[in-house]
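FORM 12-B: Structure-to-Sequence Request
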């Protein structure tokens, strides 16, 4: 992924060059005049965000990931996000056309001003903006029906990670599970077993907040917050969790992508909004049969969490790093040595939570393995 400063672009309406900011500002007024088919408000890490959907299709594509966080509509929203595509905002076609850029699909072009942040991705086919003056954001795509499969599991991630980071809630590449009000943060590189661990805990009756991305905050004490009520798992491992099969979206899954679980499809599955953090676990796959836990130092935990700083633009990386440094110094850390028997993992996590000082764990309903 490359983050680049925005270049000058040629306006199709006149021959002189105009800035990206000027081009967006012209479209912004138009976007505010458009009707929206519906809206919903979600409490994300204690911050109310109102999403105004340009169409029912847009809501269908985006809302399932946030449904567990829905609250009273319009209740004190701190940020309003307008979501439109060219079916609901045809007048934005000129802006999208002007920002047709060279580079790869993962490249990000950025305008970062005190009053406006403008992000362009996928060679100009996805525009995200935040007007800091009026606490309003915009998500503009050519076609709501073409939002990539894997992005529907974590919509608006770039926008929300930056906005929430400004409010001292930091996105981490981690899973989070718990017991009652207490939880653990599970770190590890891709393929280290975070998703399998989190899903095995969910399947066993423990609390589940995330399997891939979540938010951490310090405030009076460390906490972890859910941002998406979804999960991802390699297709070859689906047979391990038959109870979750009804929540998997498989119809339009590209062959190379993991299966995505949308947990709002099963009313019996509860996704926790947050936990008080009691420990940090660093996942490692071993050749053992059963999962075990071994105490590690803060430096090892810090090494495991620092790659999450790459989720932020440079202006926020220092703040995120400071939060992560404090987090690993305040919490005990353990190596989660994952065994091949996935059903032994929830019991190991539960035993740790029950032993940690100050834990408030209540009836967990954990199945015997």
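FORM 12-B RESPONSE
SEQUENCE OUT:
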């Amino acid at each position: 992924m490359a983050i680049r400063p925005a270049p000058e672009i040629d306006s199709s309406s006149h021959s002189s060059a105009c800035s990206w900011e000027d081009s967006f500002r012209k479209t912004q007024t138009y976007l505010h005049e458009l009707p929206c088919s519906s809206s919903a408000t979600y409490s994300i890490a204690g911050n109310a965000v109102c999403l105004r959907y340009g169409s029912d299709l847009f809501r269908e594509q985006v809302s399932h990931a946030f449904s567990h966080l829905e609250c009273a509509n319009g209740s004190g929203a701190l940020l309003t996000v307008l979501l439109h595509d060219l079916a609901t905002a045809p007048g934005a076609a000129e802006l999208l056309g002007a920002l047709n850029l060279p580079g790869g699909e993962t490249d990000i072009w950025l305008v970062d001003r005190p009053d406006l942040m403008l992000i362009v991705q996928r060679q100009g086919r996805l525009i995200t903006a935040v007007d800091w003056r009026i606490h309003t954001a915009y998500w503009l795509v050519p076609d709501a029906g073409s939002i990539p499969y894997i992005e529907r599991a974590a919509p608006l991630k770039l926008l929300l990670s930056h906005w929430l980071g400004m409010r001292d809630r930091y996105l981490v590449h981690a899973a989070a599970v718990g017991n009652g009000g207490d939880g653990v943060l599970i770190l590890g590189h891709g393929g280290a077993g975070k998703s399998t661990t989190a899903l095995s805990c969910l399947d066993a009756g423990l609390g589940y907040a995330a399997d891939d991305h979540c938010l951490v905050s310090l405030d009076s004490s460390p906490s972890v917050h859910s941002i998406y009520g979804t999960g991802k798992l390699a297709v070859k491992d689906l047979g391990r969790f038959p109870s979750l099969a009804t929540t998997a979206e498989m119809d339009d899954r590209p062959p190379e992508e993991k299966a995505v679980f949308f947990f709002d499809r099963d009313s019996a599955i509860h996704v926790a909004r947050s936990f008080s953090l009691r420990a940090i676990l660093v996942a490692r796959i071993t050749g053992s049969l059963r999962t075990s836990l071994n105490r590690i130092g803060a430096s090892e935990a810090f090494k495991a969490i620092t790659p999450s700083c790459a989720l932020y633009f440079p202006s926020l990386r220092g703040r995120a790093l400071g939060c992560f440094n404090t987090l690993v110094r305040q919490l005990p850390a353990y190596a989660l040595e994952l065994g091949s028997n996935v059903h032994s993992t929830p019991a190991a996590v539960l035993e740790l939570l029950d032993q940690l000082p100050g834990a408030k764990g209540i009836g967990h309903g954990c199945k015997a393995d």
